[in-house]
Specification:
- By secondary structure, the protein is mostly helical.
- It has one domain.
- The chain has seven helices and five strands.
- Helix 1 crosses helix 7 and helix 2 packs antiparallel against helix 3.
- The two termini are about 35 Å apart.
């Protein structure tokens, strides 16, 4: 999961600017269980070790529900300006998923450039793979789909969307800035 890489990156950036990891407990994030529920849903319908769902029922509805839970969590925590990037990214991903029946359009070219040739081949042959669908003229909002990629030589190389970039950056910002807060929620010098 690419988003897990945001945690150590955010911590390293926070440390570089004099932050302390112990200050992260002061973020006072509410309803964190919504994120946990969203993650469990996604792991059940799109496990990383197989293209087949563990729970193969109502996959589209559950996928959209998982993003709706994230959006609800973001709405509950809107008072934290640092969640803005996360929210915009989640809305971008939710929009493209909703427009494509719960699937993310993915570019074969981006998958191959990321070294995901097996996924690209399966997608070209079957049209879908886990939570992605072959990007084509019939898929909607392709520019919000998985059109970007990390080079294949990088760890965790994969294809990803603009929404993913915003979520990734938002997580890094939330962690790094959270490490700089004092007990009152204001940033330390």
């Amino acid at each position: 999961m690419l988003f897990l890489a945001a945690i150590p990156i955010g911590i390293l950036i926070g440390l570089a600017f004099g932050g302390r990891p112990s200050r992260l407990v002061r973020l006072r994030l509410r309803w964190i269980g919504l994120l946990a529920a969203s993650l469990v849903i996604q792991l059940l319908i799109f496990p990383s070790f197989t293209p087949e769902a563990i729970f193969p029922y109502a996959t589209t509805a559950l996928h959209l529900l998982s993003y709706a839970l994230v959006c609800l969590w973001l709405a509950v925590n809107h008072r934290m300006g640092r969640t803005l990037l996360l929210g915009i990214g989640a809305i971008c991903n939710l929009a493209v998923l909703a427009a494509n029946g719960g699937y993310m359009p993915a570019s074969i070219r981006a998958l191959e450039a990321a070294g995901q040739t097996g996924t690209a081949q399966h997608l070209a042959e079957q049209g879908t793979y886990a939570n992605i669908v072959l990007m084509s003229d019939t898929t909607r909002l392709n520019w919000l789909g998985d059109v970007l990629h990390l080079p294949s030589w990088m760890p965790l190389a994969t294809a990803f969307s603009i929404g993913d970039v915003l979520i990734f950056a938002g997580l890094i910002w939330l962690i790094a800035r959270g490490m700089k807060q004092d007990g009152r929620g204001t940033e330390t010098p």
